[in-house]
Amino acid sequence: MLETKFCGIGMENPTRLASGIMGVNSGQLIRVAKEGAGAVTMKSIGPRERFGHKNPTVIEWEHGLLNAVGLPTPGVMNLEDEFEELKELRKLGVPLIASIYGSKWNEFGEVAGYVASKKPDMIELDISCPNTEWHDVQFACDPGICAKIVADVKNIAGNIPVIAKLTPAATSPVSVAKACADAGADAICAANTMPAMLIDIDAKRPVLAFRKGGMSGPALKPINLKIVYEVYGKVEVPIIGEGGITNGRDALEYVMAGASLCGIGSAVWARGSGVFAKVCSEMEDWLSGNGYSKLEDVWGIAHEKQPFRRLGMVDMPSAGG
Ligand SMILES: Cc1cc2nc3c(=O)[nH]c(=O)nc-3n(C[C@H](O)[C@H](O)[C@H](O)COP(=O)(O)O)c2cc1C
């Protein structure tokens, strides 16, 4: 009922582990794959070793997580063993998505060159991390620079599909998505965390050592869901819906908005690494309970139906006068 194809790659179900969550080493990725994720994404890889920010880097709050991990990475030269161990994923038949970043636009190509030689199933471009000291630069706010990054990586990646990961902080995520698709991106991910902060009033200081960070989890769902809804139909490539998916109903909202895959990150904190299997069985329950035999029957369906009209509030006869 949930089998799917994404960028031509077959998957048992439409869930994927989001980047940076449990994806920091191969053992964790393999565990998540065994526990039911349809695809898994590695922690973003940068060009050189980088240590990330001081603790605390991740805080749980009432509506999700706030993080400023700061893109720690062993750098491309220190990942040989990691990729070697990940060969086990092949036996499980779970696609591997490598995520890459650069601090300058032309560093993405440098990292892509190494990563492509390891033949992941897809490469995701983290052009949207809010937790860097690069003068608050999020490439994904600028359609022009994103197009340059995508075109450069596409030249290097050969036939490996490339995913561009948007930021909800862009004024027009749709323009960024279109620029990426026009430059050759094979898929769009909507989207990364939202730049945010929290203050501990007793300590009278920001809760994160880096002061600000990226907000994820349930509070992010309505924001990123709207981006998926708006991007759908504006680009001819598939969309990964990501942000606040905690249960099957959340995932179905994204599918009805037009997402072909559902990225899950913070919910691993809330529901454990078995969350992928749980979300899938909740989706199946809803689909069969509502007379559907396959997921694609509800794909993008929210675009076809008119929003509810509340009697008494719409179409009220004019009071005249
Ligand atoms: C602790 C943490 C680390 C993250 N690291 C990365 C990362 O390295 N690369 C990336 O593209 N996104 C990263 N993200 C963003 C997630 O991949 C995901 O896009 C975001 O959290 C929204 O999904 P969620 O609400 O299901 O968590 C990170 C998120 C968290 C919470």
| CATH fold-level topology | TIM Barrel
Per DSSP, the total helix count is 10
Helix content: 25-40%
**What's the total count of β strands?**
16
How would you sum up the major sheet?
A: 8 strands, parallel, barrel
Beta-strand percentage range: 15-25%
Radius of gyration: 20 Å
**Unreliable spans:** none
Name the CATH class: Alpha Beta
GO molecular function, one term: dihydroorotate dehydrogenase activity
GO cellular component, one term: cytoplasm
Family: Belongs to the dihydroorotate dehydrogenase family. Type 1 subfamily.
Active site: 129 (nucleophile)
In short:
This protein has helices spanning 26-34, 80-85, 87-92, 107-117, 143-157, 173-182, 221-231, 248-257, 267-271, 275-289, and strands at 4-6, 9-11, 15-17, 39-41, 58-61, 64-67, 96-100, 122-126, 162-165, 187-190, 194-196, 199-200, 205-206, 213-216, 239-242, 261-264.
Overview of this protein structure:
- Residues 1-286 form the Dihydroorotate dehydrogenase catalytic domain.
- The chain is an alpha/beta fold and 321 residues long.
- The protein has helices spanning 26-34, 80-85, 87-92, 107-117, 143-157, 173-182, 221-231, 248-257, 267-271, 275-289; strands spanning 4-6, 9-11, 15-17, 39-41, 58-61, 64-67, 96-100, 122-126, 162-165, 187-190, 194-196, 199-200, 205-206, 213-216, 239-242, 261-264.
- It has a single domain (4-303), classed as Alpha-Beta Barrel (TIM Barrel), CATH 3.20.20.
- The strands form 4 sheets. It has an 8-stranded parallel barrel with strand order 3-4-7-8-9-10-15-16, surrounded by 7 helices. Strands 5-6-14-11 form a 4-stranded antiparallel beta sheet, with no helix packed on it.
- Helix 4 (107-117) packs parallel to helix 5 (143-157) and helix 8 packs across helix 10 (275-289).
- The longest helix has 15 residues, at 143-157.
- The N and C termini lie far apart (57 Å).
- Flavin mononucleotide is lined by residues 18-21, 43-44, 58, 65, 67, 69, 71, 99, 126, 129, 165, 192-193, 216-217, 220, 242-245, 263-267.
